[in-house]
Every structure is written in structure tokens, then in C-alpha cells.
Design goal:
about 90 residues; Alpha-Beta Plaits; about 25% strand
Length: about 90
């Protein structure tokens, strides 16, 4: 009986290991942010995207830095989220 339990142990580990996903960071240029309230809207829109783990907006530079799980979202979805909120964005050249 003990041998049988150990025989299934490696198989059970296969089903419990998390999928390997990479955390990525993207910086978006958001030139339409013109007032102090704009970053709140941009932050809220980005945080609603599944897979976003953190957002930091630099209002004076008109930039949004987003940490996200690339298995759940991508750059196009982030750009769409800000655009749908009224603030078109594009990836900043780094």
C-alpha cells in the first residue's frame, strides 16, 4: 500500500504546480492626460485589465508604468483599456 501511494505522488505534483508565467513591465505614453484627475481614470482603467498587478502613473511625464502577467494580458490590451477610457496610449520607446 505504501508503494502505491508514492507511485502517484509525482503525478499529483504535476497537477498542483503553477503554470509558468512571466511578470512584465510596460511603459505607456498617455499624452491626453491634461489634469490632475486624469491619472486616476487611467489607473482605474488599467487595474481593471485581468493580469495587471500594479500601475504607477507619472502625470508630469504623461507616462503609465504597468506590471502585468503576460499569460493573462498583453500590451495591446493595456493600450485598449486606456483608449476605451478616453486616453489613447502607445508603448513608450525604452
Amino acid at each position: 500500500m505504501k508503494k502505491l501511494a508514492f507511485a502517484f505522488l509525482p503525478l499529483s505534483l504535476l497537477f498542483t504546480l503553477p503554470a509558468s508565467a512571466a511578470e512584465k513591465t510596460a511603459t505607456l505614453e498617455v499624452p491626453g492626460m491634461t489634469c490632475a484627475a486624469c491619472p486616476v481614470t487611467v489607473t482605474t482603467a488599467l487595474k481593471r485589465v485581468q493580469g495587471v498587478q500594479g500601475v504607477q502613473v507619472d502625470f508630469p511625464k504623461r507616462l503609465a508604468t504597468v506590471r502585468y502577467d503576460d499569460a493573462k494580458t498583453n500590451l495591446a490590451a493595456l493600450e485598449k483599456a486606456t483608449t476605451d477610457a478616453g486616453y489613447p496610449s502607445k508603448a513608450a520607446h525604452q
